[in-house]
Specification:
heterodimer, A: 416 residues, alpha+beta, nine-stranded mixed sheet, B: 842 residues, mainly alpha, five-stranded antiparallel sheet, 5 strands, disordered N terminus
Chain lengths: 416, 842
């Protein structure tokens, strides 16, 4: 049972306070929290998500410069606190079109309204964005325009959402749409770790099946894959029926309206990675020569885009001089070095080379950076997952169906 | 309770009102608008309301505008209404008289034709939390529970709980719990059902202490009928309500194995729910249901592994942390099961360090013959990590793995390679590990010593590492040619050595070295003993003196004492007892797991039991916590006993007859405590020689005094108090409520006592010497308030409860005594008074 939620800015200022129960939580807890943050180095993203203060147990979540802080004095499932704060952050991002201090301060009335519907007396009620959107209209441009024209500014619908009365809590009963279309996107992230000697330590893909549905009535969809056996660790949106999946690996569901995550999955023990990054560091009397080569290892068949290589220069490096034959190299104030390559040209393979001057007294480099690689490949799901077909029942007319795929780098790390 | 703090802004920006002028300006404008029906009135109201609320949001007290806000509340605009509700909810508690003004419009809104407004109004009405307005709540709540709209019913259900917290009696008298129960079993809307369940659980938990009927009701919620009813509807519930139902099911005691498998089959798909909280709650159900079936329990581990690992991988680092904490618990219980999944616990560069730390611990735990090579290779990569604490942590992990394994050949090589990295912290951590390794595997000494001997002691600064190096120098001085000379140079710098630990080790090492290579070390040993004798640190001084006398007595005996043949250490002591681990496991899916401590070790007493302190006692600090060592010992023991009985109570409705409802029968654990306390008593007397000892003679002496001072009522021959009486705050609170005041009298406090009473602790400690324990205390000079208790030593447990208010400026104490046995309270009062009068005198 959460007793109170605070929003803090990344400088520790209390932006908003919402008391949930009769046990008022004094604002001084925020001061305590901020002192704690400062004592831990001052970076809110590095603070433990669950902290015990002398008076309360605190859950904290740091998103886009805002700290969401929830207080409780009783034992409760920790994930309930953390997940709830995550949902609050997600819903607010969704409503306000982003998340930052100014947005919260400009729209605090909506934030209050949302929190009011999301939690009553410390117990989470509804966090489903689709339903909330029906109760409280997001402050979009259209509604602003409308309010100017009609003179009525109300972001609250006077009707209660139908879904609260339907037996499918994620969809309202009578949906009418001008459009009649559904899109299925496979979005995959490749996590790979290469060891110092270039061997592949771990390679996995974390994927999401995202659906964007704009269908009238109560459509019943079935989605099947050509090779479902490669999937592991699936998690489903509440709309997915469990039995058909268990018996035939078919996703059968009545979709919520709009965008949602139908399923997440993991594909393990992959062997092929699209690009290689080969760093070489050789130390010599107070200097370290660095050379990084990037190239295509296994051609995925589509263009590899937005390739970046990022690494943190060790703290014992006094100065660095890096050049590349392709793309741009930037060294930021915190000694993060980022090399954006973009696409790999046909005629040459990109390389970065340069010299690191070590601090005086150091002969060799002992701490080696980890190279984090980013890339994006449109049109391919690197896990090899293929959609077999999508059937729609209960639809008045055959809707338009669209499929897309995208693979990007997740935690793609090369150690040196 | 307290009004929102007046502007505590650190950096007031120019746009914020600096004083009262803005607030009064707002008041004026609101008043002008109050009666206006002009077309644009709502818009200007909205702007004003927004300003008021934004001031409220930044923490400025705008309660002065209360009546104006209420006047403006007559509007049909729902946003205006919401802002008004918000405002009223925030300030009603500190302006109870003004809150009455809002009742009218809120009640009117409760009859609005729009269900949304009805619901909102009802929610705000219940959120006012003003005790004297309770009478206005009952009718709207009753109507709300029967409302046609599920939204209103849902709000009304939670409203009942709010009413209960304001005035439990009103809530129970209006028969709301029964209404909620029927609603819970019949309502078509799942959210209403969930809210009813939530509220009923809360109410019955709190009531269970007070009435038997309530504890029976609490058990009915756990009956098969209700649990199955809820389980069958589980898919209708939203994710949070599912968590609630699952929490309930975890407490359910299944009747037979079919029952268990039915529930598990029904819930299996919950393991793949997108919400991590649901997944963890389901896992808890599975683990608890199968606790008694060993083979199924193992299968459950297998089954829950994948969903947990998935949760770790997908989602935010905050979530991973909470899930990893639970995984950590499971891994520690069954490391074998996870040994093939070690790659899941590899650290990603971008993981926050708290996640990395947990992962390292798990890698350490699951390392076995089949995966050690991979894991150690991975850990060695972290040793060069940019993140120094993690680098240290991973070196330690390598060492721990080495200590667990039989085949340490390769690991020792790796560790020795760390020493060649020439990074000071790597060297430091490695030295400590090498020392531990040598204690367990003396056979590796040759390889290790060769490398360690090359390390210059100047490069080692950290005390722990330095101590380890010195230990090795002493232990293996015969294999290290330079050992005596290194020690000698270290001893020369004795004064620069800050850590006592290092100096202690230097002394011992010099001794050991002396026995092996006397001529070379003699001078160094002499210097070390001289320096040690002059040392200001007590332990160092004592050890030097001890060695000195030992050597004087007989050198061969000294050698036998200091340098006996050693046996290799086979198992290093575990820091956490298995009992604690089990207890944490019982509290799966709770904060206990994250803190790696059972909840009794960190939860306030106030919240430990399903029992709420009255404001009065709640605000006082708990006296026992801060006084002395022995009471704390007692405390934790009591807690252990307490929580066990609590657990039994939650767990077993079948075993839980009316007579056994834990708290009402504290006899059992009190008596077991008495036996325990008699063991600790002697220790305590020794450890605290400054305090007067509470022997029975002492008590008798006081009784004699008593006979003189109390003339009325022939006192019983003697009253002996239990020196280690124990009472938990809950029982105290209940007794205090039940018993009548048997004595209420004023007595005086000596001037010395007044002078000594600077903090409550002083008196608490003093009263303890007279076997009177403090349960809660508080206040500041000149007024202090204490709640004491004492227990009769002989016969059936009989408690005396005392409320004592001391005013130091008038040197008076108001004493109220309540007693289980009212006839003995006179005598006890005498005891109490004489103890109080001695305060500061002794």
């Amino acid at each position: 049972m959460l007793q109170c939620i605070f929003f803090l800015s990344d400088s520790g200022e209390v932006m908003l306070e919402k008391q949930m129960t009769g046990h008022r939580v004094d604002r001084s807890i925020c001061a305590w929290f901020w002192d704690y943050v400062l004592s831990q180095g001052g970076d809110p993203s590095k603070i433990l998500p669950v902290i015990a203060s002398p008076t309360h147990y605190l859950f904290q979540l740091f998103r886009d410069g805002i700290i969401f802080l929830a207080c409780t004095q009783v034992e409760m499932p920790p994930l309930m606190g953390i997940e709830f704060l995550r949902r609050v952050a997600d819903v607010l991002t969704d409503y306000l079109g982003g998340l930052n201090e100014d947005l919260i301060k400009d729209n605090f009335i909506i934030v209050y309204e949302l929190l009011d519907e999301m939690m009553d007396n410390g117990f989470p009620l509804t966090t489903e964005p689709n339903i909330l959107r029906e109760m409280i209209t997001p402050p979009n441009i259209v509604s602003k325009m409308l309010s100017v024209v009609t003179g009525k500014i109300s972001n609250v619908s006077t009707r209660l959402p139908d879904a609260t009365a339907s037996c499918i809590p994620w969809r309202k009963t009578n949906m009418k749409h001008a459009s009649n279309e559904v899109y299925v996107n496979l979005v995959e992230e490749m996590d790979a770790v290469f060891s110092r000697d270039g061997a592949l330590v771990k390679c996995e893909i974390y994927g999401e099946v995202q659906v964007d549905s704009h269908l009238p009535g109560l459509p019943d969809l079935t989605l099947s894959f050509a090779n479902p056996s490669i999937l592991n660790d699936m998690r489903f949106h509440p709309c997915v029926r469990f039995r058909p999946w268990e018996s035939d690996q078919i996703l059968s569901f009545v979709p919520p309206d709009g965008e949602f995550k139908l399923m997440t999955y993991r594909v393990k023990k992959l062997k092929s990675t699209p690009i290689y990054v080969k760093p070489q560091l050789t130390s010599d009397t107070g200097n370290c020569h660095i050379n990084v080569l990037v190239g295509i290892r296994n051609d995925p068949g589509k263009t590899i885009d937005s390739i970046t290589v990022q690494f943190q220069l060790p703290f014992c490096v006094a100065s660095a001089n890096l050049t590349s034959n392709h793309g741009t190299v930037n060294i930021l104030a915190d000694k993060t070095c980022s090399w954006s390559i973009g696409q790999i040209p046909k005629d040459k393979s990109p390389s970065l080379s340069g010299n690191l001057v070590l601090e005086t007294g150091l002969d060799r480099l002992h701490v080696f950076p980890v190279f984090q690689v980013g890339f994006k490949i449109m049109g391919v799901a690197l896990s090899g997952l293929q959609i077999h077909k999508l059937d729609i029942k209960n639809a008045p007319s055959q809707p338009y169906k669209g499929f897309r795929a995208l693979t990007q780098a997740g935690e793609y790390e090369v150690r040196s | 309770m307290a009004p929102p703090p007046a502007p505590p802004q650190k950096s007031p920006s120019p746009s914020q009102p600096s004083g009262k002028s803005e607030v009064s300006d707002l008041k004026l404008q609101l008043r002008q608008l109050a009666g206006s029906r002009a077309p644009g009135a709502d818009d200007s109201k909205r702007d004003l309301f927004k300003r008021v609320i934004s001031y409220m949001t930044v923490g400025i007290d705008v309660s002065a505008a209360f009546s104006e806000m209420v006047m403006c509340s007559a509007t049909s605009d729902i946003v205006l209404k919401k802002m008004c509700y918000l405002y009223v909810g925030n300030y009603a508690r500190c302006h109870p008289d003004l809150a009455l003004l809002t009742i009218n419009f809120l009640q009117k809104d409760c009859h609005d034709e729009d269900p949304m407004i009805r619901g909102l109004a009802l929610r705000s009405l219940c959120s006012l939390r003003v005790p004297n307005l309770v009478e206005y709540l009952v009718a709207p709540l009753g109507a709300g529970l029967k409302d046609g709209s599920s939204y209103v019913r849902m709000v009304a259900a939670v409203g009942v709980l709010k009413l209960y917290h304001i005035s439990a009696a009103t809530c129970l008298d209006s028969d709301f719990p029964a209404m909620l129960k029927s609603l819970m079993l019949t309502d078509p809307d799942a959210q209403v059902v969930a809210n009813c369940l939530f509220v009923l659980q809360e109410i019955w938990n709190l009531e269970a202490n007070k009435s038997e009927e309530a504890s029976r009701e609490r058990e009915t919620i756990l009956s098969k009928k209700i649990v199955y009813y809820l389980l069958n509807r589980i898919k209708e519930f939203n994710e949070w309500a599912q968590c609630l139902v699952l929490e309930l099911v975890a407490k359910y005691i299944p009747s037979d194995t079919d029952d268990i498998f039915d529930i598990m089959n029904l819930l299996e798909d919950r393991l793949q729910h997108a919400n991590g909280a649901v997944v963890l709650a389901t896992i808890k159900v599975f683990l608890h249901l199968t606790m008694s079936m060993t083979d199924v329990h193992q299968q459950v581990y297998e089954r829950i592994k994948a969903p947990l690992l998935t949760l770790v991988g997908s989602g935010s680092s905050e979530q991973s942390y909470a899930v990893l904490s639970h995984l950590h618990l499971l891994v520690m219980r069954a490391p074998m099961l996870f040994s093939s999944d070690y790659k899941h616990f590899y650290c990603q560069f971008s993981d926050p360090s708290y996640v990395k730390k947990l992962k390292l611990e798990m890698l350490t735990a699951i390392a076995n013959e089949s995966n050690t090579y991979e894991i150690v290779t991975e850990l060695c990569e972290y040793a060069g990590n940019v993140d120094v604490p993690i680098a240290r942590e991973s070196i330690r992990a390598v060492g721990k793995i080495a200590l667990q394994q039989y085949d340490v050949n390769a690991i020792v090589d790796r560790l020795l390679q760390f020493l060649e990295m020439e990074k000071d912290y790597v060297t430091a951590e490695t030295l400590v590990l090498v020392k531990d390794l040598l204690r367990k595997y003396p056979q590796w000494s040759h390889d290790c010593i060769a490398v360690v001997g090359n390390i210059s002691s100047k490069n080692v600064q950290e005390p722990k590492a330095k101590a380890a190096l010195i230990w090795m120098l002493g232990e293996y001085s015969q294999d290290m040619p330079d050992a005596p000379y290194i020690l000698e140079s270290l001893i020369e710098n004795w004064d620069e050595e800050n850590a006592a630990e290092v100096r202690l080790h230097l002394l011992t090492a010099a001794m050991k070295c002396f026995f092996k290579r006397p001529p070379e070390t003699q001078k160094a040993l002499g210097a070390a003993l001289a320096a040690g004798l002059a040392d200001s640190h007590q332990d160092v001084h004592d050890r030097a003196l001890f060695y000195h006398r030992l050597l004087q007595y007989d050198v061969s005996v000294a050698e036998h004492v200091v340098n006996p043949p050693k046996q290799a250490v086979s198992v290093f002591a575990d820091t956490q007892s298995s009992e604690i681990k089990d207890r944490v496991f019982d509290e799966f899916n709770s904060l206990s797991v994250v803190y790696q401590k059972p909840s009794y070790m960190f939860t306030d007493k106030e919240h430990r039991e399903p029992f709420e302190f009255s404001e009065e006692i709640g605000n006082l600090s708990l006296g026992q916590e801060s006084v002395g060592n022995a009471p704390r010992y007692d405390e934790s023991d009591k807690d252990l006993l307490l929580s066990t009985s609590e657990r039994e109570e939650n767990g077993g409705p079948s075993t839980n007859g009316p007579a056994a409802s834990g708290y009402s029968a504290p006899t059992d654990y009190n008596s077991s405590l008495v036996s325990l306390s008699s063991q600790t008593q002697s220790e305590m007397a020794i450890s605290d020689p400054g305090m007067p000892k509470y022997t029975s003679q002492m008590t008798l002496a006081i009784d004699d005094l008593l006979g003189l001072s109390v003339s009325a009522a022939p006192a019983p021959p003697s009253l002996k108090l239990n020196p280690k009486a124990a009472l938990d705050p809950g029982t105290f609170q209940r007794k205090w409520g039940q018993l009548a005041v048997s004595i209420s009298q004023d007595c005086s406090v000596s001037p010395q006592g007044v002078a000594a009473l600077t903090t409550p602790q002083a008196l608490i400690r003093h009263m303890q010497t007279s076997c009177i324990q403090c349960i809660a205390s508080g206040g500041q000079s000149p007024n202090f308030k204490f709640f004491f208790f004492a227990q009769k030593l002989d016969g059936p447990p009989s408690f005396f409860l005392v409320e004592c208010i001391v005013n130091t400026s008038s040197a008076k104490a108001q004493v109220k005594i309540k007693a289980d046995d009212a006839t003995a309270s006179e005598v006890f009062f005498g005891l109490f008074q004489s103890a109080l009068s001695k305060f500061g005198v002794l």
